[in-house]
């Protein structure tokens, strides 16, 4: 099963696009040291001709900025308030026409239907939101 793993890994690592993506990801990662980020910026500039990576580092040093991450239900806001915020943000206006938004936003109808069905079985979703979601599913023919 793992016989061809080294060949696959060699193929992935030799792909210049993957290398560039990895360098950019490391530069954006708040857990990577400034020295490593600077080295990666220099590699991007020399190997890939991306001078903007060096310019970005001169204009906006990353060391002074810290990102805060919210991890959802396990964050300090508590699971019930997180669910309410998430659900109310996604439900929008009750008179909102789902079929119009699907065409305008280019959303996959299957994903929308699956999301609505998941909301119906989620105990953290309010009864009012479930009523709206049932109506949306009915409007979609489900």
UniProtKB/TrEMBL annotation:
Composition-biased stretches (Low complexity): 69-82
Biased composition (Polar residues): 88-98
GO CC term (a single one): cytoplasm
Organism domain of life: Eukaryota
InterPro entries the UniProt entry points to: Conidiation-specific_6, UPF0654_domain
Compositional bias per record (Basic and acidic residues), positions renumbered to this chain: 127-142
Annotated region described as Disordered, given as residue ranges: 45-102, 118-142
Protein name stated in the entry: Conidiation protein 6-domain-containing protein
Organism: Podospora fimiseda
